[in-house]
Design brief:
about 15% strand, two-stranded antiparallel ribbon, 11 strands, alpha+beta, about 55% helix, elongated
């Protein structure tokens, strides 16, 4: 069978090192360390990138799945909100629209008090804008519309802070605020029955409560806080689309906000963390790859006589160069491929592994009142795997050039004279 001479000799050198003694044994040990370092670096980078992809996905699909992409407000009391909702929903850039009444309030149960954002919603339209229904009992919204008793839906984090369960009662308090005539409005207080408790696994569990539109309007005193929530075709274009929609409205008192003003810092932090961590892990891969340099330098020193004999038998400079490039390429290829396989396996199992550790030791590594979500998400993307494996192999290949050039410059006469 035809075998290219440089590749055949390079692979023989790589395979024979572990069976030799003295200095070659040290070379084999260093070569093994280089390969292990490259494997761990590649695997770690794939897992890290998958976790960052997971956080990015959870922000887009879970947090911004519950919260709107943009909201348009107006404090005027005579706005026809259903008509405005239909007008905005007809825009081709808008997927869905729903009216909302937002009130910043305090929830109290006994001596426990916690701040929260109360949203008054229309059960018929909120499910088109938000996926909050995925985390609720099917009858939860119907219970909000029950006129016999005011109901509220709480996030689990709020319920745990207050020590309250479904079916119990709490008080919602709207603090004093300035009125339109420059005076002060008295604080408003109303009692509510907890009809359901949702757990989205995000920071919204600690800040969001839902009531009916009429209850939120009464809690707010009928002034301010009303608006239209929008779900848009292009999330990243939310600010531009919102400004265009505001410009198309006839009145001048409309104003708005988009997700970048509420969760933009989180999105930027995720992207920055991904870039910084990726850079650090890439440096780890580079260090492991360039350990190949020390390995091959020692191989060149150990194989001086072999190189000299090959040169006297007619091996060209190019063939000697390719011999040691082949040996280093084998280390890089094995390290990058094995590391890639371990990284894929780690990315697919890291979420369940962390959840298992949390369950086994009774601890929680991520809490949604500190982090965006209360579990470690992961999303494997094959282009990332190809990029990391390719970068690891390419760095290893580049690291072989210097020692391979040194090997190709060995003078046969001098090498053989030194062996005597």
């Amino acid at each position: 069978m035809f075998r290219p001479l440089p590749a055949f000799i390079g692979l023989r050198y790589a395979g024979a090192q572990r069976h030799s003694e003295d200095s070659a044994g040290l070379v084999s040990f260093i070569s093994g360390l280089s390969m292990v370092g490259l494997i761990l670096g590649v695997a770690l980078m794939i897992v890290v990138m998958s976790v960052m992809n997971g956080f990015d996905r959870e922000l887009r699909e879970r947090i911004l799945g519950i919260m709107p992409h943009a909201t348009i407000y107006n404090s005027a009391p005579d706005i026809d909100w259903p008509a405005l909702r239909d007008q905005l929903a007809a825009d081709p850039e808008v997927v869905a629209a729903a009216e909302v009444w937002q009130v910043n309030a305090l929830a109290r149960k006994g001596r426990e008090v916690t701040p929260l954002l109360v949203q008054g919603v229309n059960p018929g339209t909120i499910v088109e804008v938000s996926n909050i229904g995925e985390f609720l009992d099917p009858e939860a919204f119907a219970a909000l519309a029950d006129s016999t008793e005011a109901g509220v839906i709480l996030g689990r984090g709020i319920a745990e802070k207050l020590g309250i369960e479904e079916g119990e009662h709490l008080s919602l308090i709207v603090p004093n605020s300035d009125s339109d005539d420059g005076g002060r409005r008295a604080a408003r207080l109303a009692g509510f029955k907890v009809t359901d408790i949702f757990h989205s696994g995000t920071a919204l569990d600690h800040s969001l409560a839902l009531v009916s539109w009429s209850q939120a309007q009464a809690l707010a005193g009928g002034s301010g806080g009303a608006g239209i929530q929008l779900r848009l075709q292009e999330m990243l274009q939310a600010n531009w689309i919102m400004r265009r929609l505001l410009g198309d409205l006839p009145a001048q008192d409309f104003y708005g906000s988009d997700w970048s003003s509420t969760h933009g810092n989180l999105y930027q932090a995720i992207q920055m963390s991904r870039n910084l961590v990726g850079l650090l892990v890439l440096l780890i891969i580079a260090i492991a790859a360039f350990n190949v340099v020390s390995t091959l330098v020692m191989v060149v020193i150990d194989k001086h006589s072999d190189i000299a004999i090959l040169r006297t038998m007619g091996a060209s400079t190019r063939e000697i160069l390719l011999t040691f490039v082949s040996q280093g390429a084998l280390v890089g290829l094995v390290g990058a491929v094995v590391g890639g396989l371990l990284g894929v396996l780690g990315s697919l199992t890291v979420t369940d592994l962390v959840a298992g550790l949390e369950s086994a030791f009774g601890i929680q590594f991520l809490k949604s009142d500190v982090y965006p979500v209360d579990y470690l998400p992961s999303e494997l993307q094959w282009p990332d795997v190809a990029l990391v494996v390719g970068a690891g192999f390419l760095l290893s290949l580049l690291a072989t050039l210097y020692p391979a050039l040194q090997a190709s410059r060995v003078q046969p006469a001098a090498a053989l004279r030194n062996e005597q």
